[in-house]
Amino acid sequence: MADEPLNLHSNVDFTPPDVNITKKKERNPFAPGHQTDAVPKDPTVTHFHSFFYDTFTWKYPRTTGLLFASSLAFLLLGHYVNILRYAFKGAYITFAATAAFEYLGRPTTGTGFMTQVRPQRYYTIPRENLEMVFAEIHEFLNFVVLEFQRVIFVENLTVTMASFVFSLIGYFLVKFMPIWSLLILADVLLFTVPLVYLQNQDLIDHHINQASAAATGQIQNARSLAEKHTADYSAKAKTYANDLTGKLVSVYQDRQKITKPSDASVPSQDGSHTT
Asked: Are 82 and 74 contacting, i.e. CB atoms less than 8 angstroms apart?
């Protein structure tokens, strides 16, 4: 009997197993709202911090210039043009035109023109859009509250002092300038002051350091002078107190000598006076 050839692959099943592999959907780590366990999100920092910093420092000049021009145009338009009046005018013209088209179309076509172009389903605002809007409002309110607390609790002394100066200037300007002029002035300063500072940062910082050093020197001189006068006045007060105490003691002793009966005037037990 001849040996049969050995088939090494006779009992091997090459059918791939039924494995259900589900790939996990990857998320963009740089997308808003993504938070990893290794780098937790800082609740005191919002995306408005970087947005306003990039805008007011003119990191993107074209975008910042467009925002600056748009804000000025909006303020001037709101002052010189009665926007509310024109809004009502546009509303009544639109309603009158649609009503006229509907009324004139019914005798000719049986249905009005507006009925013919009416959509089968009216447009609605998706819930996701509203959630995005409310999320942005929430982030902006947090930005305002956080920055106000940083100014109040003097996280940066320069920022707090600058806020004080601008508030004081605004307090006096309100008496002489209308609100729209103040808004235009604030808008111009908001877009120009950071740019001027960045372009002349070394010179401005040098003058600020000089002024700070001069103010510190004046404060130190005033403090040393106050300490000197305080020491002099304390020494004089101590001398006056010692003199007054000595005088009071001497007066008290003299009064005791006057009021205390002498030994010669004290009567003896047999009724005679001793001399």
From this structure: no
Q: Is 112 exposed, middle or buried, given 0-12, 13-18 or 19+ CB atoms closer than 10 A?
A: buried
Rounded CA gap, 86 and 90, in Å? 6
Alpha helices in 6-46 (DSSP H): none
Q: pLDDT category, 91, cuts 50, 70, 90? A: very high
At 46-75, the pLDDT tens digits run 788 888 888 888 888 898 999 999 999 998
Contacts of 146 (CB under 8 A, 6+ apart): 44, 46
Q: Which segments of 224-271 are extended strands (E)?
A: none
Secondary structure of residue 222 in the 3-state scheme: helix
Buried b (16+ CB within 10 A) or exposed e, 119-139: eeeeeeeeeeeeeeeeeeeee
Whether 216 has a pLDDT exceeding 90, the answer reads no
Compute the chain's Rg from CA coordinates.
Answer: 45
- Smallest Cα–Cα separation from 167: which of 187, 141, 186, 195? 186
